[in-house]
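note to self: dont lose this again. the chain is below, predicted strucutre after it. 196 aa total, dont forget to put it in the shared folder this time
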Amino acid sequence: TVSSGGTCGNGILEGGETCDDGDATGGDGCSAICQTESGWSCNGQPSVCTQVVCTLTGATWSASTRTEGSSVTLTVTGNNCNGQQINFVVWEDDILGGEDTGDDPVAVNPLSTTFNGNVATMTWITEWQSDALGDPEYYFVATQQTNASNRITSSAPLLSVSQAPVVTADVVVNGAQTYQTIDAFGASANSLSWDN
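---
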């Protein structure tokens, strides 16, 4: 194969080739057009390619406290992870627990995201779950999509989420007065009506 002024597959770096491993077959680190494939490093003539391992080095929340329904950013750092996709699972931390033994999953997890350089970020809309000992506290687990054993748990502090305030209102509709309790999302939690 001729590639950017060189002959791809002859084991000699020529023209615009970034690798040449002596064949014109992709999937081994050096593509069929003699370009280094994502997640690989190639050196020499003929090129010897080795897979670069993504190492997750940190996982943090952008804040330690939030109110239910607000946005918070999850940040994961890593080495050699550019272009790798990360999945997130958020857990409510219980005293007796761990993600497999008692911690509670959230209703909606953050979407997956892709590393841009050494950083991957995604937002999550906070949830409030009833916790016997005050406001719920959350941590997250980030996992490399192509290597489920490559995972990291967010570092301290946990994210504490307070319940959104409840608003009450007196409303008069068609001559009847109504007392409504409305949650932070506009849903009527309960109401009581009487005629004037």
